[in-house]
Design a protein that fits this description.
alpha+beta, 9 helices, 422 residues, five-stranded mixed sheet, Heat Shock Protein 90
């Protein structure tokens, strides 16, 4: 790819599909179109089956080639590639192509939203997440767009635009916008078909770029949350009902039925342990996204739930000025805290769990302290071994220091400390 200055790059040589025939018969043009489409479909099918990009395939080059090719059409002013954040319902102009040149970052023809994540409602009244293409015929008078966007379009001499969705399953991960020069006729059905083919190729290529990983992760998180809710609404509720029935049976048994009473009590204990395991699994499946909440509020929400149905008192406090932490650090601390509380609830049988979050200018410290039965950390035979390993691995992943102090009969103290930028 050849850099041309001012943030622009020339697209590599490749197929330049015309929106309208440019010489040759209509039959020849249609034959070329069919051959090209079949070739693209075969490549797409092979890629979808393997789950990986074909050998030698460069998704960035493919995206630039498609955007650049369509931007060279006589009636096209420019093309814009928008990428959506499905969680936050925002969209961002990633790339613009103008007469074959690719523009990135904030150097995209002076576009007011270039390189910025903005609410989807800023554009076409929030239609960025529609799965069907749509056409904006009179941009200057389109009141669903932001005024600064309308002004930019008018200044650039853009009269209308076609907006085509980029799909990943049922999710709209982005949109290809094709802006038409003032005075240009709207797309014909044949031109729109070509534009849709370009959008499909760009959508495919986008799946193999790091930017697409966030969209795919959202799809995975949605499925995890769905499974978690199904477990909570079925198996967890059934187990809760089983525990209640065992309590009733225990109360109804004659005092002389010692063996029967022991059996019921063992069954009740097993059911409660199973319920605790399911509760932990549900929260493990739930999304770790902490957007819109602090570490303290996230811990309060998660850990209070984990202790629900027990007599354990959970206390959460914070010291120092709350800091906005990097998402990876916030999510990891939340998971470590949740794991520590889950271990305490399941194994330590404490009457109280205290959680402290301490903010300082260059570090944040998380402490989880319980007054349970404790254990010997050297043996890890209390059933908490896997949980301790998980906590250490999570702390290591963010460069944090983790210490665990405990002794039989003396409770447990988990402290994790991570350095942060000032």
């Amino acid at each position: 790819m050849q850099e041309t200055g001012d943030g622009a790059s020339q697209t590599p040589k490749g197929r330049n599909r015309r929106l309208k025939g440019n010489g040759g018969s209509a039959q020849e043009s249609d034959a070329e179109e069919l051959a090209s489409t079949l070739s693209d479909q075969r490549a797409t099918a092979a890629t979808e089956q393997s789950g990986t990009a074909p050998e030698g395939y460069d998704p960035y080059e493919s995206i630039d080639r498609e955007l650049g090719a369509i931007s060279r059409e006589p009636k096209v002013h420019s093309t814009g590639l928008w990428v959506n954040n499905l969680t936050k319902k925002t969209t961002q102009l990633w790339k613009t192509a103008r007469q074959g040149q690719i523009l990135r970052g904030d150097r995209q023809l002076g576009h007011p939203f270039a390189g910025k994540a903005v609410p989807a409602s800023y554009l076409t009244g929030g239609r960025e997440f529609e799965q069907a293409p749509f056409y904006v015929g009179d941009i200057a008078n389109n009141r669903s767009d932001r005024p600064e966007l309308r002004r930019w379009m008018t200044t650039q001499g853009v009269k209308s635009a076609a907006c085509l969705p980029l799909l990943f399953g049922q999710d709209v991960t982005g949109r290809l916008v094709i802006r038409l020069e003032k005075g240009a006729a709207p797309f014909s059905s044949r031109e729109l078909a070509f534009a849709k083919t370009t959008a499909n190729l760009v959508s495919l290529a986008l799946q193999f770029t790091p930017m697409a990983e966030r969209g795919q992760q959202v799809a995975v998180e949605k499925e995890r949350n769905r499974i978690a809710l199904e477990i909570h609404d079925t198996l967890a509720q059934d187990l809760a009902g089983l525990v209640i029935q065992l309590d009733v049976a225990d109360d109804a048994l004659p005092r002389s039925s010692a063996e029967a009473r022991k059996s019921v009590q063992r069954a009740r204990s097993l059911a409660r342990e199973c319920a605790a395991d399911i509760r932990q699994s549900v929260w493990s499946l739930h999304s770790s996204d902490t957007a819109g909440q602090t570490l303290v509020s996230g811990l309060r929400r998660h850990c209070t739930y984990l202790a629900a149905g027990t007599s354990i008192a959970v206390e959460i406090s914070q010291q120092g000025q709350i800091r906005v932490l990097p998402p990876e650090i916030e999510s990891t601390l939340l998971r470590i805290g949740r794991e520590a509380v889950a271990n305490a609830v399941k194994h330590a049988r404490p009457s109280r769990i205290r959680i402290e979050v301490i903010y300082s200018p260059r570090k944040v410290e998380l402490r989880i302290i319980d007054n349970g039965k404790g254990f010997d950390p050297r043996t890890q035979n209390s059933g908490t071994g896997l949980g301790l390993i998980s906590q250490r691995e999570r702390a290591r992943s963010i460069g944090a220091e983790l210490s665990i102090a405990s002794r039989p009969g003396g409770g447990t103290r988990v402290v994790v400390c991570v350095k942060i930028s000032a």
